[in-house]
Write a structure and sequence with these properties.
It contains eight helices and two strands; from the N terminus they run E-E-H-H-H-H-H-H-H-H. With 211 residues, it is mostly helical. Strands 1-2 form a two-stranded antiparallel ribbon.
Length: 211
């Protein structure tokens, strides 16, 4: 008996049992529509296999990202790494769909943020400004995130914030030469990083908890 036609595309033969649709679909639709058009359950064997054995292209990208991030973040303490991750959430939505943003904007924003908190660590209140309006908008968002966390009780010393911002500055400056991908290589990297690290939070506790 001939196998049924895939209900998702209507052309290829259905060969895989899809628990989300309750019927068989073709391998191509399973691979391309997984978690995009099809709400796959967590216990789907094909979904688990894809996570455990990603396509070679994805695996190579992960290896390049890892090779770039490890030496970059190894210069930071654990708290400073957490702060860097917090600051990078200011870049959410500033990826390939934001033509006015580039890694140069991120570099300038992080530099201005680092200088502001380095000055504050010396007991002087002075806001350093980025060279462009776009970069300054990012700097404002970075600094607002720090203040929000401080209001929620997180202990974020000025020196540690500055060190985290300097790390982002270096990453934005070096990403294109290390990773390729043009003048938004770092923005693309951060997008992948935030997507992989993103988890639903069950409460409104601060992202960084004071020791």
């Amino acid at each position: 008996m001939a196998k049924p036609t895939c209900p998702a595309c209507g052309t290829r033969r259905a060969r895989r049992a899809c628990p989300a649709l309750g019927q068989q679909i073709c391998p191509v639709c399973c691979g391309t529509k997984r978690l995009v058009e099809i709400a796959c359950p967590a216990d789907c064997s094909y979904l688990r296999s894809a996570h455990a054995h990603p396509p070679a292209l994805v695996q190579r990208q992960r290896e390049r990202d890892f090779g770039f991030l490890v030496p970059l973040f190894s210069r930071l303490t654990e708290l400073q790494q957490q702060i860097a991750m917090l600051l990078q959430t200011a870049l959410r939505g500033e990826g390939l769909d934001a033509p006015a943003r580039s890694d140069a904007d991120v570099e300038q924003a992080a530099k201005a943020t680092a200088e502001t908190f380095e000055t504050a660590s010396r007991g002087i209140v002075y806001e350093h400004r980025a060279a462009s309006l776009g970069a300054q908008a990012l700097a404002d968002r970075m600094q607002a995130l720090i203040e929000e966390q401080r209001k929620e009780g997180a202990r974020l010393p000025d020196g540690d914030v500055a060190a985290a911002a300097r790390c982002i500055e270096a990453g934005a400056r070096e990403a294109e030469s290390s990773l390729g991908g043009g003048d938004r290589a770092y923005l693309a990297l951060v997008g992948r990083l935030l997507k992989s690290a993103e988890k639903p939070r069950s409460d409104a506790s601060p992202l960084i908890v004071a020791p």
